[in-house]
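Lecture notes, unit on protein representations.

Consider one protein chain, 151 amino acids long.
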Amino acid sequence: MRRLLGSTAALLLASCPLAACAGGSDAGGSAASPTSQPDSGYVVSDELVSQTAGDGEIAQVATPLPDQAAVDDFTRGLADSLAAKVDEAVRRTQVASGQQLYGQVVAVGCDVPPAVTVERDPVAVQPEPVTSPKQECFAPVTTVALVVVLD
């Protein structure tokens, strides 16, 4: 099932400032960006958190984030500032009874995915392809997907 983000252009500009992508030295990033439409399947919500020079490695499956200890373990390989953004996004995310929060690093490169697809058993988040990928950038952008799914 395809999940689209609210404003792809705004997300791309916020998560990879022109100076950082075009060879400048700004290592800024974006706060979490929510999707723009509700899901009619088992995905309750999803959100992408991206930052230039955020570190981390792409994962094949999502990690359950049932408590703060799990969030701390999940963010351990990320740059401190991206870990803080992910932690803040997790704290804002509402998870009701019968739902589970997962996190996954879905991209590390010059581009932020415009959307993600969430698969089940095991929960895995796949980034949608970028329409016009950048050929090079000053520093890679790390994108973390946070998804809430029905148990």
